[in-house]
What we know:
Blueprint: E1 2-3, H1 23-31, H2 33-37, E2 52-62, E3 67-78, H3 82-92, H4 107-118, E4 125-133, H5 137-155, E5 158-164, H6 170-182, E6 191-195, H7 204-218, H8 223-231, E7 234-238
Amino acid sequence: MIQQPGGAGPAQQPTCATRSQHPDHAEASERHPQRAKSPNVPVQPSDGLAVLAAHIDESAVRLSAGFRVYGLAAVLTSTSEHARIVSALHELRLPGRTFLHHYDETPERRCQIAEAVANLALDGAVILTEATTDQHQERARAHLLTQMLPRLQYVEQVSNVVIESRAGSDKHDRRVRDRLRRSRHITADLRVNHARKQTDPLLWIPDFVVGAWFSARYHQEAAPWATLSASHYIEVTGAQDGLR
């Protein structure tokens, strides 16, 4: 969802409550102790049983004169936790809503959702951003996917990637995937598919994480992002506002 940068002064924002670390967070750190030390150290599965999945969604903010910052977030989860995570996410929906969407929520609801996501058993997240223009956003997305997919396979040891579907535009992502396979930057062992938010609730998490980051940086709404980043390892890289 494209966002507009905020106005001159930040409004009073609700503060997300401080909470202790959920036991599942410690378990995630024990599964991947290297991630807390350095994002560039390959993660080695400790027992060979955990299968990591990554769910990817996008966000962007318009700056000025046709410039913008575009971002992709990948949230990592263990398939053994999916049923519990999905159950918790379903409980966060408002009546009549089929999925969670950061852009549609009020500041108070964003704090509530951030608290809930902070207590989920996630295995970290990666946000890649790039300064671009209105005309070249698709090029920026392809560039970020070219960085993201090899990292997910070789550094994070992900087996399955699910990208939020953009209907007819999914063909652009498939071209990137196929090009990376032909050039041997990824292998066919990394499954890369698309799904809609309505059918895969795990896509709600990267939507919320990347939306919270953009809101904290550009809209003076810091509390949800502070809650998320205090509870989960989230790496953010890129030229966030080099075109401002």
